[in-house]
Amino acid sequence: MNIVVLLKQVPATESLVSVAADGVSIQTGDLKWVINPYDEFAVEEALRIKEAHGGSVTILSIGSDKAVEAIRTALAMGADTGVLINDEAAIGRDALVTAKILAAALKGMSYDLIIAGQRAVDGDNYQVGTAVAEYLGIPNISLVIKAEVTDGAVQCHRTIEGGTVVLEAPLPALFTTQRGLNEPRYASLPGIMKAKKKPLETKTLSDIGIQPGDLEGPSTRIVRMTPPPERAGGQMIEGESPQEKAAKLVKALREEAKVI
Amino acid sequence: MSNLVLAITEQIDGQFRKVTFEALSEGRRIASATGGSLAALVLGSDVGSLADELGKYGADRVLVADNGALADYTTGAYTNVVGALIHQESPAVVVIGATAQGKDLSARLSARLDAPLAMDCVAVSIDDGQLTVTRPMYGGKILAEVQMDGDPKIIALRPNAIAITEADGGGAVESLEIDPGESKIKVLEKTLETGKVELTEADIIVSGGRGMGGSDYSVIETLADLLGAAVGASRSAVDEGWRPHSDQVGQTGKVVSPNLYLACGISGAIQHLAGMGSSKVIVAINKDPEAPIFAKADYGIVDDLFEVIPCITEEVKRIK
Ligand SMILES: Cc1cc2nc3c(=O)[nH]c(=O)nc-3n(C[C@H](O)[C@H](O)[C@H](O)COP(=O)(O)OP(=O)(O)OC[C@H]3O[C@@H](n4cnc5c(N)ncnc54)[C@H](O)[C@@H]3O)c2cc1C
Ligand SMILES: Nc1ncnc2c1ncn2[C@@H]1O[C@H](COP(=O)(O)O)[C@@H](O)[C@H]1O
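A: This is the predicted complex of the input protein with flavin-adenine dinucleotide.
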């Protein structure tokens, strides 16, 4: 079983995010960077499948020099090798272009199973994994909370609104993660030591056969970024007793806010 | 390329999801602003009788792909049918709900058709023919205005963010003969919790966090039942095993935008706010007056939730 995990480094979820001077990007000055939480589930699941079935786990990421840290962390968790596509023309592109680049890289790799996050919590696109599967012409199952590899196929429990569906896809296939799939392990100290010696290759777009013109085409463009409207921390409801507070709240929800 | 707007509907067990009407309403607005027409696409098995309902949300045409192979959503079959239809009709804009199904289908379509996609949009505007969508990024810490180059422009709408408006449409029904092709994916089983209000579609959500102190959510469930609300939870409550993962609201859970969100015994961590910050009205009930949730709430009550919530339930009963 050769498993490839698509992994993106993103600002930690607790980060305060503000708009940069250009109005179309964010200030990155003092952000802390981590593995996208959904990709962490993907790494963990890949390791578990490898532990059960043998094979290898490769981490594939598009990012800048600092993304090496995220890949090393995944290697320290137990992944075998890393590939970083570090090319100015590849970083910060929209989801469709990102997927094209990842698919081009994957075409030169050997894989039975690809695992991606359902979304990267920076752009929240929910798009790259599924699009990669289309470019590779393989089936995909998204929002998976349980995966089992059997003879040449993967069975996945996929969450949908109000329930779950169990689906089976022949390998090679791609699935995307949903919380509930697993609890990612921490990198152990020996793991961290070993990770330093594991192979991590850096590639440019031309290394994976992409010429500058290949990435032109449809695109989404951010024309403006704004902070969401400030929620003006509202009204504290005072009262002598829980009954009194409850009565005032219900009245306000009914008469002022008109939501019940 | 035409100036057709295509709205892709979603039904589950013979009923349209609410986001379908939201997608149609937005589709109607886009069509009217661009001098185009609106077609609605219904996919499924034995869904012909559903088509009639859609004229009332402004669909000029209702295209029905009725096929046993479309009974349950699978990426392959659905993408084949919708992709072929888009080739045939060349719509300028495709509108779809950003549900589990809609996200998967729109992402796959976008790659197949080489068409730009804006996911999880909360607003759409058209100015001088230029389409701009607004979508939250970074867990709602940023709102991005996005424009798309390429055709068709695929807009996936976050459920509960768009107003439903009725409008007159001809609603002429046409049946489609498109081969869904071989599906590589097999559906083995489907389990739906009946009678449960889905978090992402709920008008009202009552959520409980670590302050619940255990898995007994009956105070919250009683109030939720009375209000026709869904029950949500913080990650701490889920990690404790008090609630299923599917109830989790937040950056690694569901993103919701109900009219009313009651946060009970929830401190208001940034990852929780990422999931519910776009709710229209937020109420916080917490015994700690310093809890950060109060800074985001429209109404706050400092008290023990086990004391206050039963009183709220009584009060709602009284006025109903
Ligand atoms: C990568 C990552 C992703 C995360 N994703 C999510 C996510 O998706 N969703 C999420 O919710 N969190 C998420 N978290 C966790 C988040 O940081 C917080 O830890 C979590 O939201 C806290 O949950 P809580 O408010 O229920 O618990 P606490 O922070 O412990 O707050 C409990 C509150 O209950 C109050 N309380 C206690 N007893 C009572 C009572 N009887 N009556 C009234 N009030 C009472 C207390 O005053 C306190 O304010 C994530 C964290 C990380 C690192
Ligand atoms: N730059 C990237 N490098 C590697 N994988 C990525 C990258 N961007 C997105 N992905 C993968 O695609 C998933 C969905 O991302 P998105 O569609 O951007 O929300 C992520 O969870 C990753 O698994």
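Chain B is about 25% helix and 30% strand. The two ends of chain B are 53 Å apart (CA to CA).
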